[in-house]
Amino acid sequence: MKNIVILTGPGGAGKSTIAELIAKKCDYVFIDGDREDTEFFPDGGQWLPENSESLKKAHDKILNNTRTLVDNGKKVVVDYIIFGHYLEFFQKFQKEFGDDLQFIVLFPSQEETVIRDRERECWTTGKERIASVYSEFEKIKNIIGQDKFLDTSGQTPEETLNIINK
């Protein structure tokens, strides 16, 4: 794995579970992007068009926090849905970290993601928002590279980690 790993995808895709495994087993510092952007969105709504500028500020905060950790010699795993401006987010991180960056879009089947989302103990994303995020990622799949999309359908978190860690 690279020194900076960004795990993204729809809610319920397994980002937090995999990020926590990477942090624990591979000695990475874990950044929860969804928690980081709470400062800008205490009531949610990150994806709403009227919140576009605040979303960009949240993305900059996550980038700056990552940069600080890397500058201090840490390896970093970022878990973040991103919520919009996906391509811009990817490009900012790519420009900052270049070859030291690995993007992974966890992309199990939409049906499995909805089930995982419904069954988890924390907050849920909901079927409609999951469908919307899938659609947004499909639009940029060929731009950021299909090789960055990992179908984790039917995999345990450990199996997914083994694939990422190759």
Supply the key terms.
7 helices; Rossmann fold; 166 residues; alpha/beta; globular; 5-stranded parallel beta sheet; 51% helix
Shape: globular
Mean pLDDT: 91
Biggest sheet, open or closed, and with what strands and sense?
5 strands, parallel
Query: What Rg, in angstroms, do the CA atoms define?
Result: 15 Å
Count of discrete alpha- or pi-helical segments spanning 4 or more residues = 7
Q: Give the N-to-C terminal Cα separation.
A: 7 Å
The helix-and-strand class reads alpha/beta
Strand content: 5-15%
- Helical fraction: 40-55%
User: Which stretches are low in confidence, meaning pLDDT under 50 for 5 or more residues running?
Assistant: none
Q: Give the CATH class.
A: Alpha Beta
CATH architecture descriptor text: 3-Layer(aba) Sandwich
Determine the CATH superfamily: P-loop containing nucleotide triphosphate hydrolases
Order of helices and strands: EHEHHEHEHHEH
Strand order of the largest sheet: 2-3-1-4-5
Number of domains: 1
What do these coordinates show?
The chain has 166 residues and is an alpha/beta fold. It has one domain (4-164): Rossmann fold (3-Layer(aba) Sandwich). Helices cover 51% and strands 13% of the residues. It has seven helices and five strands. It has helices at 15-26, 33-36, 52-71, 86-97, 110-119, 127-144, 157-164; strands spanning 4-8, 29-32, 76-79, 101-106, 149-150. It has a five-stranded parallel sheet, sandwiched between helices. Helix 1 (15-26) crosses helix 7 (157-164), helix 3 (52-71) runs parallel beside helix 4 (86-97) and helix 5 crosses helix 6. The longest helix is centred in the middle third of the chain and has 20 residues, at 52-71. It is globular, with a radius of gyration of 15 Å.
